[in-house]
Please model this.
Amino acid sequence: MKPEIDYSLYLCTDRDLMSTSTVEEAVEQAILGGCTLIQLREKDCSSREFYETALAVKQVTDRYRTPLIINDRLDIALAVNADGIHVGQSDLPCTVLRNILGEDKIIGVSASNLEDAVQAEKDGADYLGVGAMFSTDTKTDAKLVSMEELKAIRSAVKLPIVVIGGINLKTAPAFCDIGINGLTVVSAVIARPNIRESAQNLLRIFQGGHE
Model:
């Protein structure tokens, strides 16, 4: 059965930025700080290392009953029985992923424009990752999405939406009253000396804007 998802504070990992010695330690501190969903993203490691890291991280997410999403890699998601997968526009189509994963897994799709967002909803995605909202060092080639485009996407689709790209303490307040479901954070949490506190502060901003 597909888990109920709280998208409020969605952590995307990056081992090159983390302030801890292991990914699982960073993930645990983020969850303790209030991160509600974890995406494991590994761009520069072997399949074996990705698999072993995913197993270690899943022990943490299972302990705290926090869903684990794998970035891009269907094989890793299947191998560790993750809760779902997140893909971009150049990855396997959502329809193919759904046929393989079934209805009980979460599928997130990146969208940077209205057309891609509408198509993802038609294809059976569970949520959208919209961005990049601001320039970010974690994805230097990302196309920026305007607030107008984000609002158009919000009006056109019923799916949960999380925003990504340059989300931090300064930019987070901009998203508190436009109907999105969560903030996706990378360096604003995982690169901070106190990961737990950084997550708490961002979650407080987002939740405060919805009260």
In short: The longest helix spans residues 47-63.
